[in-house]
Automatic annotation (TrEMBL):
Species of provenance: Kribbella sancticallisti
Keywords: Membrane, Transmembrane, Transmembrane helix
InterPro entries with a match to the protein in the record: Cyclic_di-GMP/3'3'-cGAMP_PDE (IPR052020)
The protein, known as: Metal-dependent phosphohydrolase
Transmembrane segments: 12-34, 41-59, 92-113, 125-146, 152-174
């Protein structure tokens, strides 16, 4: 494929701005900390060590960003630390400097070992922790600390929650901006997805950071080893989830290749269709769960052809009669339903060859993803390898079927995606 994969993020100007902002902020904080001196070295070293370890064992949950729950929780915990024996709590500059240096110390071994790492995500973490530290310092008096009294515990807990919420907000806004630039996703939809992710995963790491800060404040340096157990369980759960997702996606792609091996589709056709379908799904602002189902449906849209007597010439299913295509879609949906966990994917495939006029135009229960797969497959077969049509000619042919064969909303989305320079 000549163009960038639509399912993979690209290094664009927003990434440079984030790295530049994180680097400048870190250097400024380090300079101020060196000039003023470091307070409470044991706590700085302990939390810095946790951040570095968390960065070293970061991993990729999805294809959009790496996750480092231990590093995030430790960094947030240090930002809201207020133990009673600390005469002078760490200021914002020291917190940023410690987190920044620990982050760098954590990613360097990954760089040397050639492991995947994401400097943009690491810098985003530094920026969000800086925001949390600034908010916590602004709303918390210097003489307020964990003394065992509810009179101190309630306002401190509220300040911690506010700091974590501010960090999550900043990270969600930055992440939404990145998604808009990387995937051409509408900003409101991107922000919605980031907020949902923050509520599900980000707040879990935030609460873990609060518990780490409270445990350390009450138990001293005995606190981190005790609180680290749930953090390790969280890390383990994230890794299991990531592994399951990778296995799932590999299985889907292997199933999709069965039609190529049998000659019912051209080599790479299903992957190209899924690539374009995902780009259109981003353009239409679909939620992550629907995006995943859309990708799987596009990959498996041709599975039902295996039940037909003969392969399509050149793997072009558009040359078949409508009855054959709809029969193949129904058979494919039945095969997918047998998995027991892909019912929504099966529903998309079942209607992926329905003409818009007789389908979704009269039945709003038919998912828009079916129309996306229909248009993506048609465009791929007109423009894909060996087809010979130019994108403009293919768009002209598809345009002739607007309102009858193809969903007008989906076709307009295809125009926008192609207009941005999409290529297989």
């Amino acid at each position: 494929m000549n163009g960038p994969d639509a399912t993979e993020p690209r290094w664009l100007s927003s990434g440079f701005v984030i790295v530049f902002a994180g680097g400048v902020l870190g250097l400024a904080a380090l300079s101020m900390t060196v000039r003023r001196g470091v307070t409470e070295w044991p706590y700085a070293l302990t939390f810095g060590f946790l951040v570095a370890i968390g960065e070293m064992v970061q991993f990729r949950v999805d294809r959009n960003r790496n996750r480092a729950p231990i590093a995030t929780s430790a960094a947030l915990g240090y930002a809201v630390l207020r133990p009673p024996e600390v005469a002078i709590p760490p200021d914002v500059a020291q917190i940023i400097a410690v987190v920044g240096l620990a982050t760098l110390a954590g990613v360097l071994p990954r760089m040397i070992a050639g492991l995947r790492w994401d400097v943009v995500v690491s810098c985003r973490r530094v920026l969000s922790v800086a925001c949390a530290a600034a908010v916590f310092a602004a709303v918390t008096p210097s003489d307020l600390y964990w003394s065992g009294s509810w009179r101190h515990a309630i306002p401190l807990t509220g300040a911690m929650l506010l700091a974590v919420l501010s960090a999550a907000t900043i990270d969600a806004l930055v992440g939404a901006g990145q998604a808009t630039e990387r995937f051409n996703q509408p900003f409101p939809a991107a922000l919605r997805d980031e907020v949902v992710m923050a509520a599900r995963i980000g707040m879990a790491m935030g609460i873990s950071g609060i518990l780490l800060a409270i445990g350390t404040s009450l138990l001293g340096l005995w606190g981190p080893p005790l609180v680290l157990v749930p953090l390790l369980l969280t890390q383990f759960a994230f890794r299991r989830f990531a592994s399951a997702q990778r296995t799932y996606r590999t299985t889907m792609r292997s199933m999709a290749r069965s039609t190529e091996i049998a000659g019912f589709s051209s080599p790479g056709q299903n992957a190209r269709t899924a690539q374009l379908a995902v780009a259109m799904g981003h353009d239409l602002g679909l939620r992550p769960a629907r995006m995943e189902a859309l990708e799987y449906a596009a990959l498996l849209s041709g599975v039902g052809q295996l039940a037909l007597a003969d392969p399509s010439p050149g793997g072009t299913s558009l040359l078949r009669s409508r009855e054959e295509r709809q029969q193949a879609a129904e058979i494919g949906a039945s095969i997918i339903e047998r998995s027991g966990v892909l019912d929504h994917v099966a529903e998309i495939v079942r209607h992926s060859n329905d003409p818009y006029r007789l389908g979704r135009a009269n039945n709003p229960n038919i998912p828009v993803e079916s129309g996306i797969v229909n248009v993506a497959l048609a465009y791929e077969q007109l423009v894909g390898e060996g087809s010979g049509q130019s994108p403009a000619k293919a768009m002209e042919n598809i345009g002739l079927g607007i309102g009858a064969e193809y969903d007008p909303v989906v076709v307009e989305s295809l125009r926008r995606v192609i207009g941005r320079g999409f290529q297989f």
